[in-house]
Specification:
The chain is built from nine helices and seven strands; from the N terminus they run E-H-H-E-E-H-E-H-E-H-E-H-H-E-H-H. The protein is an alpha/beta fold. The protein folds into three domains: 48 residues; 97 residues, Rossmann fold; 39 residues, Helix Hairpins, CATH 1.10.287.2170. The relative contact order is 0.12.
Length: 201
């Protein structure tokens, strides 16, 4: 019986090595353990080549404020339809109502757990900005290192002036808080000055 290393099996199946390891742990593919490594029987590789397993997906959607709830619902519904059309097995739908600059979003943190634990194949989003306002490339590299790809359904998001303004306030608040302390009078004054200046535009 011919056995393949996980890296070679991944290459033959057109998936990431981390995906092979995940399938082994989930019992989706038989493997032989040799020392600390796994070997995949050639028959298993052929079986998967004939009927490839459905990718496991997490849907992630975000809006910046509670009054955009209807937009959040539309995002989720469209992404569900997209995943259904692609044949993905959706394991979770994560949403956040928060700024794209906030890295402590509950849904985003849960998404990181899915990626780090090797539980999914793909993250489906409507636009890059739904996942993060800045540093998308870093997130993509991190996800890819765990065998997870990001699928962005649309390429260019319509500009939402109100959301951009709220993101600006988030940046100003964060920097002013670091300079003067989050509860200081100076910090509040800086934020209020910026708010007033934008309001006058």
């Amino acid at each position: 019986m011919k056995l393949h290393r996980t890296g070679r099996a991944a290459e033959m199946l057109g998936v990431h090595k981390a995906t092979i390891i995940r399938w082994i742990r989930q019992g989706k593919i038989k493997a032989v353990r040799i020392g600390r490594e796994f070997r995949i029987p050639e028959d298993e590789v052929k079986r998967l080549l004939k009927g490839k397993l459905a990718d496991t997906a997490v849907i992630y959607a975000r809006v910046s404020s509670a009054d955009q709830k209807s937009d959040l619902e539309r995002q989720v519904e469209y992404l569900k339809e997209y995943c259904s059309a692609k044949g993905y097995s959706v394991v979770d739908i994560l949403t956040d109502v928060d700024s794209g600059l906030n890295e402590k979003r509950r849904g985003l943190k849960k998404l990181f757990e899915y990626v780090a634990n090797g539980e999914i194949d793909v993250v489906v989003i409507s636009y890059k900005d739904r996942l993060t306002r800045f540093g998308f490339g870093y997130l993509e590299e991190f996800f890819n290192s765990h065998g997870v790809r990001i699928e962005e359904v649309f390429r260019e998001e319509p500009k939402d002036l109100q959301e951009l303004i709220e993101d600006l306030f988030s940046v100003v608040t964060s920097f002013a808080g670091r300079l003067y302390g989050m509860r200081s009078h100076k910090k509040k004054k800086v934020v209020e000055s910026v708010r007033q200046a934008i309001g006058d535009c």
